[in-house]
Each structure stands twice: as structure tokens, then as C-alpha cells.
Design brief:
By secondary structure, this protein is α/β, with parallel strands linked by helices. The chain is built from seven helices and ten strands. It starts with a strand and ends in a 6-residue tail after the last strand.
Amino acid sequence: MKMIVFGATGNTGKRVLVLGIKRGHEMTAFVRNAEKLYEQLGEHYAKHVKVIADDILDPASVGEALAHQDAAILAAGHAGQGEEFIRMVDNMISQCEWQSSFSGRVWMMGGAGLLDIPNTDLIGNHLPGFPPEYRNHNRNLERLQQTKLDWSIMCPGTMIESNELLAHSHLHVTTDALPIPMPETIKEYSEADIAGHLFSRLQELDVTYDDVVTCMLDHLELGGAFYRKRVGLAYQSHITVR
């Protein structure tokens, strides 16, 4: 496939590039700093990547970069950038919509706070105590939901380096809901108590960058299992994947 990665020098984006190359995809990197990318990738991988160094807020540049691509990974920016992050994501999504030769498969990065809390009608980012900047992910999700694109939004907890202790763990994948079990009685908790319960269990949502990236690149087909879904990941045992 032909795949473009926005934010290709970030912790997620650079791993998408390397795994994409290993799998034989035709990779394009959209970055601010080409030299930084070349330093990160090294000579072996850099020669397999088309690099576009331009302004991600420029509609023409982003639209042209998306031409004839089969998939786009939107891994640029972070919620703490506030309105700039919102504009950045809006421009990437808008150009995905408007570029007629783009096939329409989009993966975007969000966070575990975007997922439904089982046995409640809440999501984490609406709870007291959650950093208010995380709600920028909510706004980006709402923007995606307005499109007709074939999208998925990856919603991991804290992403960590690969860990041998996790090598034999079962990766539990969920759509739209948190990937850790919740007591049925949680529906009787106050929102503050639900937040406290989640904060006490945040470590259960740690997941490696490599598993996040592998999950995305395993699901690049149009109309697949994660079509227009939020995706959660966690390591668990003796749990049926749903």
C-alpha cells in the first residue's frame, strides 16, 4: 500500500515508518524537519521513504501530499498544543476529504480517555480530575465523526518502550470501550469516585509503542473491523477479545 505518516519524527510516527517499510509498504513521511527524520531512521530505512518537509497547517501542501495515498496515519501534534492541535487535525482531515485520489483509510491518535467506561454512560475525559487539554481529543473525534471517511482512532493509555515482561501477555483489543474490566457496581459510583477508581488503575492501560503501531498496520483495509471505531488496547489474560 501507499501510506503517508504525518508527524513521522514522533515516537509513534517513526515506528509506523519502520514497520511499514519492513512490511513492504510505500511510505511517505510528512515532517517539519527532514534532517531529524534522516537521523532517526538511519541510512538503511531512510532510502525507502519519500520525505515531504512542509507546513502541516498549509492546506495545499497537505492535500498534495495525500494524492494517490491508500492510507494516512495522523500522528502529528499533541493535545497540549490546544487550538493549534485542533487546527492541525482539522486541516489533515479536511484534505483527506477533499483529495479525490486519496482512498480514505485514516488512523488518528487519541487517548484512553476517549473510550466508554463499561457499565456507565461516561467517557474518561468528561470525569473530574482528567486534564482539560485531553478534551481536545474529543473535539478531534467529533470532527472525524462528521466525515464520510473510513477512519479509526487509536486510544491507548501510556505508551512505553517494548518490555520483555509483556512479551507473553495477551493483548486485549476493544472497540469504543475501555479494555479493562469494570465492576458492574461502578454505575452506582459518583463521577468523582469513578475517576478515582480509574486513576488507581491507570497502569493497567500501559501498552508498548510497538503493539500500538502493529495494531494499526494490521488494520489498513477499507471497511474493516475497526471501521469508524475508537480502539483500546491493554494486556490481560483469560479474557475473550471483543
